Amino acid sequence: MKAAQVLTAVEMQQPELERHFLQVIAKHELSHAYLFSGTSGVGKKNLALLLTMRLFCSNVQATGVPCGKCNECLRIAVGEHPDVLMVEPTGSSLKVDQIREVRREFSKSAVEGQQKVFIISEAETMTTEAANSLLKSLEEPPTHVTVFLLTNNYHRLLPTIISRTQVVELAVQDQAELKTKLKQGPLPHSTIQLLLNLTSDARQIERLTEDDWIVKSKQGLERWFRWLLQGDWQAFLTVQTNLVPLMRDRNDQDVTIQMICFLFQEVLQVKYQGTGSEQLAFGDDYKMMQQAANSLSDQQLIAIIENVLTISRFQQNNVSFQNILEAITLKSLREFQ
Ligand SMILES: [Zn+2]
Questions:
Q1: Molecular function (GO) terms listed (predicted)?
Q2: CA of 61 to the centre of ligand 1 (A)
């Protein structure tokens, strides 16, 4: 019963991704590690389960869909297949011991068949120690292993984890509607990409698009980033003249920090996955992104993102936002020089 529910749910929630991945599996082109990112209830786990069922199913349908009835499908759906390991946070985080267990299982061969699948829920709750441990496995994945990491807070994941996985965004149905609606409006494609990456809350989108705030802040950040890239101190001036005056409230400040992290994460995507300009929120000046990807090592990019996150925490101590952006600029400039 549970297996059939999974099949129906995916058909309802993510029909396009289902078709896409079934083709990928049919062509034997599935990667070792995926990161399914999307708000809760969007169908990340169901999609991972369906694909796992497809990998193990003993009676795959002519349409490429798993049968949902065989012993393999049934056991996977209820979490009782010995070669499918599902990991969830205990308490508020995924602990290093849990990931060590995953790594031990990684290195063992499959109990019944030729392959193993790991489904790791709420991956963003991994402690740094756990994430670093998992990273070691992701760097050299055994050929028989497929990992699905699930997250509803992509921005909280260690960039190194993101760079070792194929990131797949799962959009809620009304987000698709939202996207259609936004596309009919005056916003450029890249700005829509950015908005949808920042939030799927219609009210927040309204707030961010008011008076072209998102367009202006994105332009300000791109200008800032161009100066950074040249190792030029003008980046400070941009903070003062282009960014700080745009901040209406604390929400704007938080979104700006989120955008900065996202910008550097996209540089990582360009570096590791050769992501094209069309898929990027900051891809309008693709040369700039490529230049950044080429001139920074992954350690430097990660150091920058970690610095941004660390420095932004000072907001809670009533440090002015200008000071925070300047501290971020100073730290980042050091990596660029
Ligand atoms: Zn089956």
A1: 3'-5' exonuclease activity; DNA-directed DNA polymerase activity
A2: 8
Span from the CA of 201 to the centroid of ligand 1 (angstroms): 37
Handedness of CA 196, 199, 200, 203 (dihedral sign): negative
Ligand 1 is an ion; residues with CB less than 5 A from it: 57, 66-67, 70, 73
Laid out side by side, the sheet with 84-87 consists of: 84-87, 116-120, 145-151, 33-37, 166-169
Between residues 210 and 54, which one has the greater pLDDT?
54
Extract the tokens encoding 175.
């987000």
Q: Please say whether the dihedral angle defined by the alpha carbons of residues 95, 311, 163 and 133, taken in this order, is positive or negative.
A: negative
- Best CA proximity match to 253, nearest among 217, 209, 286, 222: 217
| Distance from Cα 110 to the centre of ligand 1, integer Å | 18
- Taken in order of first residue, the domains within the chain and their CATH numbers are 2-169 (3.40.50.300), 173-336 (no CATH)
Contact 92, 60 (CB under 8 A): no
pLDDT digits (tens, 9 = 90+) for 52-80: 999 999 999 998 999 999 999 999 999 99
